[in-house]
Inverse folding.
């Protein structure tokens, strides 16, 4: 407890945590739209394309001036986005391939420029490679103001253009037929994501920044079926992941903040994928198991019905052992399910014989609804299990 | 802009559209009078959807122009309702049926204005028209194909347009939905609206529509269905595939 209080009093940590919150809110909100537009790779392309800009900014400014570096990053990021758009419009490449092409070309150019800069005398200490994985501790109070401004801008954009963005994301063709400026919305959205990426460079770096865009949105989508809730949740997840990553990195020396933020987000994503109601893997498995059990119970019902017919006796009591043999597995649980629904009832026979079951009237009606073929096939399937 | 052919709901002149230098539509003229239900019919790849998209300004044509009620499309956008193919969107989008229908009103709402009670009421009445009011709060991911299509139709209905363009509204749709959709379209026509439908099923053209265009990159024929629906025209449109159509009961079909 004391440790946490001490940590919260730490100036650097407070700065880093605040920055992580701002970055998480921005990238969560903007990322929701990017993910729903199937542009998850956009953040990846923009961040990798920032690398040549970082090196160029350094060359032009003749030193590690943050504003020059970030301006360069923004410039080449936007240039890469334009390259991507041009490829989509003018060639036969689809969006994903175009994003991939832009990403690799700009990143390769960035790596070449970076090694060139580092090869020059005196540039060894430039520390440009920190932009690859981020260096959160280098964030200054003054940087927070810029981050806050960009966060406010992106929140304002999402609020003001809410219905336009929603329509253009769900059905861009229809949105265009309404006269909404879809190309303009595209451009604004891309520019905002580029801005968010540039903001994230110091914190999480070029390589992992795309996780900030994609992870919160993917996690949020699992929990809700409303766009509004999704955007708010994604922002919250982004902020929470940021703070947790910052806190963990502060507990030990030499723990990189950016990767820890991304790992925290990954845990949130994993939990969401597994445990979210409805969309979660566990919920889906439970649903499957339930419907499988209900289906097998009906197969038992259909089998009992057939046996009753073969014996020409509607009240014919089937011995459980017979059903177990027929299905090759114990049917006790399934019979209890059927009993609960009032479709079969236990019949008292001589005590030395096994348990017997007979169809109730409702059960006979229900059995007649099971297609006979399904009943027969089903018997075989259940037997195989 | 001058008024041009004001007596026609849709007037398309010399429309040519090319993808990568290959013409998809070549020199197409189309005239649809107001108050009819018109079908645009043709084989796969004939450019039917492209024609709709070019009329709606969603694709830039290489040549040609489009007039609606005598004025260029851009001035008449507010009089147009559009139902795109339902497969053109990802239905696993986090929103509800009523919300999708309200989107039809986003164009006239203007920036910064949120849909309110009026918009919700209009959406609900459109959903009622297509027989979907029970589904208003349903997640769109849970809809069947026919329900998706009726949701899209409701979204166009709230646009309260004078001319409706529908792209394959009956494709992959259950019988109930098809009946509901046709009913709504007939109602629209009876109220004097113009309905233009890209349609794939020749069988139902004669029973359902009163105007038709046969399209295969070029406009093969157009006019009232009873005049256009001839073996000769169908053969000219579908070529060798015409054998498939003999069951369609062509007047004057060979053999």
């Amino acid at each position: 407890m004391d440790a946490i209080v001490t940590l919260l009093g730490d100036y650097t940590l407070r700065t880093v945590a605040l920055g992580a919150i701002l970055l998480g809110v921005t990238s969560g909100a903007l990322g929701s739209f990017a993910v729903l537009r199937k542009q998850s790779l956009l953040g990846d392309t923009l961040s990798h394309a920032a690398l040549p800009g970082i090196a160029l900014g350094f060359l032009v400014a003749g030193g590690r001036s943050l504003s020059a570096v970030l301006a360069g990053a923004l410039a080449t990021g936007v240039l890469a986005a334009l390259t991507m758009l041009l490829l989509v419009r003018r060639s036969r490449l689809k969006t994903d391939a175009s994003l991939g092409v832009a990403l690799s070309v700009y990143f390769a150019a960035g790596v070449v420029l970076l090694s060139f800069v580092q090869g020059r005398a005196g540039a060894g200490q430039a520390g440009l490679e920190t932009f690859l994985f981020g260096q959160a501790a280098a964030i200054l109070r003054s940087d927070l103001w810029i981050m806050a401004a960009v966060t406010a801008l992106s929140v304002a954009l999402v609020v003001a253009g809410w219905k336009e963005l929603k329509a253009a994301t769900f059905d861009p063709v229809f949105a265009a037929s309404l006269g909404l400026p879809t190309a303009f919305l595209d451009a604004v959205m891309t520019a905002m994501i580029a801005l968010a990426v540039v903001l994230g460079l110091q914190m999480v770096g070029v390589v992992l920044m795309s996780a900030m865009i994609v992870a919160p949105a993917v996690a949020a989508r699992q929990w809700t079926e409303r766009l509004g809730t999704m955007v708010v949740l994604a922002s919250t997840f982004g902020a929470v992941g940021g703070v947790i990553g910052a806190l963990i990195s502060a507990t030990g020396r030499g723990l990189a903040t950016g990767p820890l933020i991304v790992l925290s987000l990954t845990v949130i994503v994993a939990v969401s994928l597994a445990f979210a109601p409805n969309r979660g893997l566990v919920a889906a498995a439970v649903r499957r198991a339930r419907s499988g059990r209900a289906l097998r119970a009906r197969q038992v019902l259909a089998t009992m019905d057939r046996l009753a017919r073969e014996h020409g006796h509607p009240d014919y009591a089937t011995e459980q052992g017979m059903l177990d043999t027929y299905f090759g597995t114990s049917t006790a649980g399934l019979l209890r399910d059927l009993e609960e629904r009032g479709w079969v009832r236990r019949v008292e026979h001589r005590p030395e014989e096994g348990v017997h079951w007979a169809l109730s009237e409702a059960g006979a009606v229900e059995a007649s609804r099971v297609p006979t073929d399904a009943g027969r096939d089903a018997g075989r399937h259940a037997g195989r299990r | 802009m001058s008024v041009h052919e004001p007596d026609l709901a849709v007037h398309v002149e010399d429309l040519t559209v090319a993808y990568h230098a290959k013409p998809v539509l070549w020199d197409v003229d189309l005239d649809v009078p107001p108050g009819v239900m018109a079908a645009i019919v043709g084989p796969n790849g004939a450019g039917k959807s492209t024609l709709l998209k070019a009329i709606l300004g969603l694709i830039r044509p290489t040549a040609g122009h489009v007039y609606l009620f005598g004025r260029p499309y851009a001035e008449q956008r507010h009089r147009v309702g559009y139902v795109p193919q339902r497969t053109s969107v990802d239905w696993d989008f986090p929103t509800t049926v009523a919300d999708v229908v309200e989107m039809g009103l986003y164009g006239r709402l203007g920036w910064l204005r949120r849909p309110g009670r009026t918009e919700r009421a209009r959406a609900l009445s459109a959903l009622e028209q297509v027989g979907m009011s029970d589904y208003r709060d349903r997640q769109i991911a849970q809809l069947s194909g026919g329900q998706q299509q009726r949701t899209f139709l409701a979204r166009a209905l709230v646009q309260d347009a004078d001319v409706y363009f529908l792209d394959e509204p009956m494709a992959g749709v259950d019988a109930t939905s098809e009946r509901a959709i046709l009913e709504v379209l007939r109602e629209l026509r009876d109220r004097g609206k113009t309905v233009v439908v890209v349609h794939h099923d020749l069988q139902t053209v004669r029973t359902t529509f009163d105007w038709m265009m046969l399209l295969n990159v070029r406009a093969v024929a157009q006019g009232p269905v009873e005049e256009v629906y001839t073996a000769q025209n169908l053969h000219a449109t579908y070529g060798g595939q015409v054998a498939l159509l003999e069951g369609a009961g062509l007047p004057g079909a060979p053999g």
Notes: Residues 374-385 of chain A have pLDDT under 50 and may be disordered. The domain at 283-384 of chain A is CATH 1.10.10.10 (Arc Repressor Mutant, subunit A). The interface with chain B takes residues 36, 38, 92, 160-164, 166-167, 169-171, 173-180, 221, 224-227, 229-230 of chain A (CB under 8 Å). The longest helix of chain A spans residues 182-223.
